[in-house]
Amino acid sequence: MRATYAIILVLLLSACSSAPPKETIFTISRAELDSLKLAYYSDYFSFVGWDELGPVAFAIDNNRGQDGESWQAEHFVVLYDAQSGWQAPSGNGAYDNSAKSLEQIPDSDYFTFSGDVSSGMVISSAVNGLHLELEQIKPVIDNARGLSAYRLGSAAATLHWNERTLKGRVIHEYLFLPAFNRLTRTYFGVFDDFHGVYAAIDQRGDFYFHSQKSDFLVELTGYDEGFIVLNGTAVALNNFSPRVEGRRQGRGFYRWPLGWSGTFSALAAQYQFDLRIEHQSMIANWVIGGFAMGIVQGDLKKDGVVLPVFGIGELIM
User: 3-class DSSP state for residue 163?
Assistant: First the structure.
């Protein structure tokens, strides 16, 4: 799921507040929602690609919401270059949503959006020298609970960054929650030991999974869920149960995972994976938990064949 949250707003999520309106989120009617005027939307894009200089990872989470007669929007952006490490792209944080755009991602002074995920999309940022072209994305995971919706899919993509052209893959994650808006209200219990991996397999396929312990959205997202794309075929993971391979102490009462291993079945075959998280970048710390992004590397094995895995990891403790 999404991973993917601005620093201050992540802190708000972990602050003490009223219990999340879980039942309302899953049972509210369209008429009740129109009267309540409270909703939250998120489109998260995670890209990994390569050129002759090596891999680059780029992720942008685009969140927007309505609370009564006010509309909000924000970007959360990270960029990693194997040559020079984590970058500091412009555009992180809240921005104006006077257009009252919810289903569509509103443009900001830093990022513009054209097309849509169902037919192809372009994300551009002149100030960051960045232009991401996505091919059509078809959902692999498509869950709904009442009006709430959660979708995941992937596609080939090309990132033009400064003078470089990187061919790769993008994973898209969509979330819609009625009767909820983390951009204007505070909640607790939304995240609990959330691990999200958005990775490419051998520069030509995809491996996504998340593992989390919170009960809040489990009816929509599950505790452990993911999908794989190989040779143009995409399927959800079966019999999937990842294991955390070691932990290290965070700056408080929590411990970061060092990596994951496990097995799953998909595409009429059995797979084994071993992944580690490297180059971890701290985004927020609030003593009882933390938020970080990192680079995920490792391999996926099937019938004696070893396939390299590279991508982005999102950790919300």
Answer: coil
All residues at 6 or more sequence positions from 263 whose CB lies less than 8 Å from its CB, including other chains: 239, 270, 271, 272, 273
CA distance 104 to 102: 5
Note the pLDDT tens digit of each residue in 222-267: 999 999 999 999 999 999 989 999 999 999 999 999 999 999 999 8
Distances (CA, A) of 22 to 18, 145, 184, 224, 305: 11, 11, 17, 19, 44
Q: Mind listing the pLDDT tens digit for each residue in 32-48?
A: 999 999 999 999 999 99
- CA dist., res. 269 & res. 238, Å (int): 10
Specify the DSSP class assigned to residue 240: -
Query: What Rg value do the Cα atoms of the chain yield, rounded?
Result: 19
Residue 275: which of 254, 288, 261, 257 has the closest Cα? Answer: 261
Q: Which fold has domain 7-316?
A: AttH-like fold (2.40.370)
Pairing of strands 290-302, 269-285: antiparallel
Q: How far apart are CA 96 and CA 240, in angstroms?
A: 41
